[in-house]
Amino acid sequence: MDWSNVTAEDLMEALREVDWSSPPRPLSEFFSRFAVPNSYSKWNSRLKCNLYYYRTNYFIMFAFILGLGFFRRPLAVVAALLTALSIAFLNDSFAGTFSEKVTRTVRQFSPHLAAKMRPPHTPVIRGRPSAKRAIHICGQPRWVFFSILATVSFILWFLSCGLITFLLAFVVGLLVTLLHASLRTPNLKARLNTFREEFRAVWRNHSEL
After folding, report:
1. The whole model's pTM is what?
2. What are phi and psi of 132, to 5 degrees?
3. Neighbours of 91 (CB within 10 A)
């Protein structure tokens, strides 16, 4: 894949649809080789490639930095966890997996309630969905859960008086992520992973025809 031709919108769409349940890359690989890119095009391509390939590592690192910033503020830690969960709900794979696991757990106690938590069926016309399937969590549109968690987390941030600390920790986490993604040289595993994801995307589009 020529990452220089991938726009920021394409990268965000790929991060939203890709499976985030894969384990993080080993630390020996994460901190393996670093080099300063010798051109803007190489930096742009490397940044996008690393953000996609090390996405789980960056998410964990971001959460760890936020946790350090609020180590002595339990309420702020809860707010940080709710904020991370609300952001995770924006990923299709995580939202679908979370909803399925919750529905299975509820089914053990109340099958009737679990049936109501199923997502609505998308009408099919001539073997193809009539519209792009919307993501539901426990039978409700995704934006409902995102809005609730975002609102509760904002209230907790306000009550814990940790908004300034949160902003500082967020900026530090963002700078560390960008610095690593800019200097970490893409390895063969990253390239092979990219080719595999490209094949899956092509195969998924072919199967929908």
Report:
1. 0.60
2. -65, 130
3. 21
